[in-house]
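Practice problem: predict the structure.
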Amino acid sequence: MPTPVNQSRVIPRFPHQRWQLFPAQPEQASEIAQATRLSPLLAQVLLNRGLTDIHAVQSFLDPTTQPLPSPLDEFPDLPISISILHTAILEHQKIAICGDYDADGMTSTALLIRSLRSLGALVDYAIPSRMQEGYGINERIVDEFHQDQVKVLLTVDNGISAMKPIIKARELGLAVIITDHHDLPPQLPPANAILNPKLIPETSPYHTMAGVGVAYILALTLAEHIGQQEQLSQTLLELFTLGTIADLASLTGVNRRWVKQGLQCLPQSNVVGIQALIQVSGVGVNGAEPEAWILGKEPLHSASNFSPLSLKPDDIGFRLGPRINAVGRIDDPQLVIELLTTDDRKIAWERAVQCEHINHRRQQLCQEIEQSAIAWCENWHGDIQQERVLVIAQPGWHHGVIGIVASRLVERYGVPVFIGTYEDESQIRGSARGIPEFHVFAALEFCKDLLLKHGGHKAAGGFSLSAHHWDTLRNRLSLFAHQCLEPAHLKPLIQVDCHATLDQLTMDLYHQMNALHPCGIDNKKPIFWTRNVRILEQNKVKGGHLKLKVTDDEGLVQLNAMAWRWGEYCPLPWRIDIAYCLRDNSWQGKSRVELEIQGVRS
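Answer:
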C-alpha cells in the first residue's frame, strides 16, 4: 500500500545532482521537424546527438539505407578464420569454444554453438569459474581441450590479453581463433587469427561491436560461405540483439542497424529459450500458461494487450538481460548456455525459471550489500567529497554483484567508486565504476604497482590486490581523482535534452520516439524537463520507489510519474522543476503517457 506523507512535518531534501542542458536550436530543429515530420522536441534531440543535417538525420532514422561494407573487407583475419573452421567441419575435427560468464560472453558462446552445430561441426565449450578462476581463458582449460583432442580453439568475448594460454595452445598444436572486443594489450597473442573491432579503424561501422557482434559476424560469414545462411540468419540475429543490449554495447554503427531488426524478431523468437525467458520475465504482461506453452498448444503470447511487433531495448536491459547476467554473477553459466541452445521446450522452461529464481537471489544480495555500504558511508568519519573517490571493502560481500552496487553508489554519491570484498584474510577482489570526467582504467594503471590483476575501460573495471595495500590504494586513488576532478564534478550528471510543457507530452509524441529507437548507450532515451510543476500527490510504494501525480499551473494536464528508488526523498517540495523520460502505461487495451523521473530541482 502507498504510504501518504505530511509535508509540514518533514524538511524536504533533493537528490544530489547536477543538470546539463543542451542549448536550444529552434531554427535548425524546425527545419529537421518539417523534413522528417517529427515533433520539434525530437528534432532538437537529434541535434543534441550530433545529427546536424538532413542527410545524417535520415541515415540515422533508417540505417538500412546506408551501404554496409563486407566484414571480409573490414576484418583482415576473417578469411583465414573461415578457412580454419570450414576445414575442421569437413574433416570432423573437434572445435572448442571458451566463453565468458557475463551476458555478452554467454550469448556469444550460445550463438557459436548453435551455428557451428547446425553446420555439422563437432563442438564443445568451457567457461571459467568466476569465483575460482576469474575472467578469460586459462591454461587449465587449454590442457583439458588438448586432452579431449580438440583441434580448433575459439575464444569469444575474451582472449586478446591471454598471452600464456594462447602460447600453450599453439605449442600443443591447436589452431587458435580469438574473437574479442576488449582493448588491445601492447603485444597480441600468437593466435592463427584475431577478430577484434579495436584492430579496425574507428570510422568502421563495425568498430563498436561487443563480443557477441564479432561472434555473429564470424558465424554468419561461415554460414554464407557454406551456403546455409537462410536457415540460421534470424536465430543468430536474435542472439546478437540479446547480447548486444545486455552487454550495454554502443547502439551506433551496425549495432543500431542490426538491433533495430532483431528487436522486431524477438517477440516471435526462433529460440525456445528466449521464448521461455520472455514468458517468465513478464515481458508483454501475461503470456500463455506454462503447461500449454511447453506442449506447444499456445503461441508465445496470448495476452490481448501484448503487441508482438517489437520489443524495446528496455525489455532486454531491465527484464531479459538481468536474468541472464544474474546466473553468470552468482551461479553456473552452463544454465544459460543450455537455455539458449536447447530446442526442448520443457528444458527451456525449467532453465528460464531457474534464471528467474537466481535473479531474485541476486536482487536480494544487491539490496543487502547496498544497504551495508550506505550504512558504512554514513558512519564514516571521512569526507567523500574531499576524497573525491569512494573506496570501500568489507568481508562477506559477494564478488559477483559488487559491480552493480558500485553503480548504485555512484548514482547516490556522484563520485567514482572502488568497492571490494575479501577473498580471504590476505586478498581483496574489487570492481570499479566511474563518472564522465574520470577514467577508471587509467586510475587502475596509476595504481598498478599495488595490484595483482586489473583490467577495464573508461567507465568500469576490476582489480585484485593484497589486503595490506588497501589503505595505500585509497590514498593513491584519491590523489589520481584530485588530478582530474573538480568539486563541481562530484554530483551525478543529468544530461537534459530540451524543455517541454506537460500538454506536449502526448501518446503521439511517445509513438514518434520509436523513430529514435533503439535507444541505449551512445543513443540515450530523450530526457525532457518541465519547469515549476505542481505535485498533486506523492506516495512511497513497495520497493522503495516514489509515485507522483503532477500538473501544470492551470491544472489542465495531470500525469502520473515514477521515481525509481527515490522513496527516501519523499516528500519532495510541492513545486519543483522535473527532468524525465517518457513511458507508456498500457492497461486493458488503453495506453497513456507517464513520466519516469530522472532529476528534480527547486
